[in-house]
Amino acid sequence: MTRTVARASGLTKRYGSFTAVDTVDLSLEVNRIYGLLGRNGAGKTTIMQMLTGQIFPNGGELEVFGRAPAEHADVLRRMCFIAESQRYPEDFTPAHVFKAAPWFFERWDAAFAEQLVGDFRLPLKRRIKKLSRGQLSAVGVIVGLASRAPITFFDEPYLGLDAVARHIFYDRLLEDYAAHPRTIVLSTHLIDEVANLLEHVILIDQGRILFDRDADELRGSATTVAGARAAVESFVADRPVIGRQSLGGLGSVTIDGRLDQAARVRAAELGLELAPVSLQQLIVHMTGTALDAGPEQEAAA
Description:
Elements: E1 4-15, E2 18-29, E3 33-37, H1 44-51, E4 59-64, H2 73-76, E5 79-83, H3 94-104, H4 110-119, H5 133-147, E6 151-155, H6 163-179, E7 183-187, H7 191-194, E8 200-205, E9 208-214, H8 215-218, E10 222-228, H9 229-235, E11 241-247, E12 250-256, H10 261-269, E13 273-276, H11 279-287
Parallel strand pairs: 3-7, 3-8, 5-6, 6-7
Antiparallel strand pairs: 1-2, 1-4, 8-9, 10-12, 10-13, 11-12
Helix pairs in contact: 4-5
């Protein structure tokens, strides 16, 4: 049995002269938690909309469960897409939304939804148009979790939640994923908050994938070297640089790749400090200021 549940090859989406997604190749495997990360306008939502059959690509090939998603209702029924600005009929209440959910999601768990309603303190009988942004976000999060769809996409619907509610979401997601594994794709700006949830990271920028790697491989894959500017530049001279800052005689350079023991000893001899780079810092470096300038030009991280 194949482990791939969704696959795209050369996936492209254009709006007039603007290319939102540019010849993207990716695959999603069964029972993994993915982070689809990138800046605003990078193409994350567009990719998810194509995968869930909401819009058609202009080019490339796309398969979900082995078939084109937009042409097969049974494929669409096995997916759940929750957007940041998820819309519901204004005269509905959350109770109406949850009552209708089994029509769309064959694995809907009403008891789990009821538990989540209590966790998020959601007023079931208040009309959608009267809900706060956080309460509306909770409706989407509950639908996404309780659907237990084989592929579930969360396109930043939890941004409206406060910090406590977001951590409730993360905890419930992990608990339920452990009991009921499925493929989950999280798109978010809150990278540090979700970093420990992710098993695989896909980083997209300006419609193109910058990297598609296991999260464990990324953790500790970059290091910041700080100290006297001349010593820093000497140490990183033959290493791939992904970020650079300087102030007077001091320098800080972020390099890609793990340092072996010999390199760490050499850094200590030069009086340099080494610090690990978080996933969020790594993504800022990868999608921030271009590194086409020399070391004498200061660049913000």
